[in-house]
Amino acid sequence: MFDQKSIDDIANRLSNAIPPGLSTMKEDMEKNFHAILQGALGKLDLVTREEFEVQKAVLAKTRSKLEALEKTVADIEQQIVQQAETEESNQ
User: Are residues 7 and 18 in the same domain?
Assistant: First the structure.
């Protein structure tokens, strides 16, 4: 999420980009920029870097467990095939 300081900084940068001839409108435009940015960014479904990193770690752990389970299933399937082949050859 964007914090208030970040929004203020972006609004300030935008207002500083206003040509000198329009400097009388600078404060009003900065307030407008601030309101527009806050409204637009508030509508976005964003997560913090910390939340992203936590989910990234959860995904990596889940992927690792899934790979281990896939290997286990493959090993069990191989054992079943070998057992069936052994039983067929004994008959």
Answer: yes
Full domain range(s) for residue 66: 48-91
- Regarding predicted confidence, which is higher, 7 or 72? 72
Question: pLDDT per residue over 50-83, tens digit each?
Answer: 999 999 999 999 999 999 999 999 999 999 999 9
Q: Which residues of 10-34 are buried (b: 16+ CB within 10 A; e: fewer)?
A: bbeebbeeeeeeeeeeeeebbeebb
* Placement of tokens 């690792």 in the chain: 64
At 76, is the secondary structure helix, strand, or coil? helix
15 in Cβ contact with 33 (< 8 Å) = yes
pTM for this predicted structure: 0.51
> What percentage of the chain's residues is helix, strand, coil (to nearest 5)?
85, 0, 15
